[in-house]
Amino acid sequence: MKIGVIGAGQVGATLGRRMAEAGHTVSFGVRDPGDPKHAALVEAGASVHGVREAVDQSDLILLATPWAAAEDAVRAAGDFAGKVLVDATNPIGPGLTLLLGQTDSGAEQVARWATGARVVKAFNTTGFEVMADPTFGDARAVMLVAGDDEGACEVVCGLARELGFEALRLGGLARARVLEPMALAWIELALVRGQGRGMAFGLLRRSPG
Ligand SMILES: NC(=O)c1ccc[n+]([C@@H]2O[C@H](COP(=O)([O-])OP(=O)(O)OC[C@H]3O[C@@H](n4cnc5c(N)ncnc54)[C@H](OP(=O)(O)O)[C@@H]3O)[C@@H](O)[C@H]2O)c1
């Protein structure tokens, strides 16, 4: 698959590298493609471009910027029509507060900015270290996926499975209103309550799923 990654930070670089290693064509979209700090991405088999160029040449785009930069990044990207846009951001403000919730979510806001995109919320409920390796012995971290476009959700679930997650569709894009607070729960547990960043949510079942 041709995958664009907007933002080459902890989440973008981790997932982008892993997707390149899995054989996908990964194009990072960054603000300064000439910055030598991006050399490691090229060594991992990806290419580095401006944001618009990376989006233009990709079918699926991962948005992995800080929430405060998400609108600028989406608007810089230009045309998303028909493309799958995976929103991994979390609209978190000072004091670990959610800036949106109940009646709206970051993902729904992203969908309003990115006209025509098939927006899917995913890769927001665990830390980047777990994204590097979602396996825990015989168990796998769960990746919950929300989006209105069934085909786009299937593609994103497939990608998450390929990276080692147990992926499940939670519902339509409005279910991002559940997934974004869930990220806050992960952050609270991992960073404030001492569970550490090697922690992930998983599913327990009494009968096979
Ligand atoms: N860290 C985690 O474990 C984790 C887990 C789940 C979800 N998330 C969410 O994922 C998002 C990214 O988190 P992160 O930890 O990867 O952040 P990060 O390490 O700070 O990286 C953010 C990246 O976004 C880029 N960026 C900033 N403004 C941009 C713009 N206008 N256009 C294009 N790129 C821009 C930065 O590029 P420059 O180098 O140019 O500054 C940087 O590479 C956040 O919304 C966060 O809440 C994080």
Please give a structural write-up.
This protein is an alpha/beta fold and 209 residues long. It has one domain (2-192): 3-Layer(aba) Sandwich (Rossmann fold), CATH 3.40.50. The protein contains 8 helices and 12 strands. The strands form 3 sheets. The chain has an 8-stranded mixed beta sheet, with helices on both faces. Helix 1 (10-21) links the parallel strand 1 and strand 2 (25-29). It is globular. Bound molecules: NADP nicotinamide-adenine-dinucleotide phosphate. Residues 6-12, 30-31, 51, 64-67, 69, 72-73, 76, 88-90, 92, 124, 127-128 line the site of NADP nicotinamide-adenine-dinucleotide phosphate.
Number of domains: 1
Number of helices: 8
Beta-strand fraction estimate: 15-25%
Low-confidence stretches: none
The ordered H/E elements are: EHEHEHEHEEEHEHEEEHEH
Q: What is the name of the CATH class? A: Alpha Beta
Q: Could you give the count of β-strands?
A: 12
* Helix percentage range: 25-40%
Bound molecules: NADP nicotinamide-adenine-dinucleotide phosphate
Task: Let me know the CATH homologous superfamily.
Answer: NAD(P)-binding Rossmann-like Domain
Q: Please state the structural category.
A: alpha/beta
Mean pLDDT: 96
The N- to C-terminal Cα distance equals 28 Å
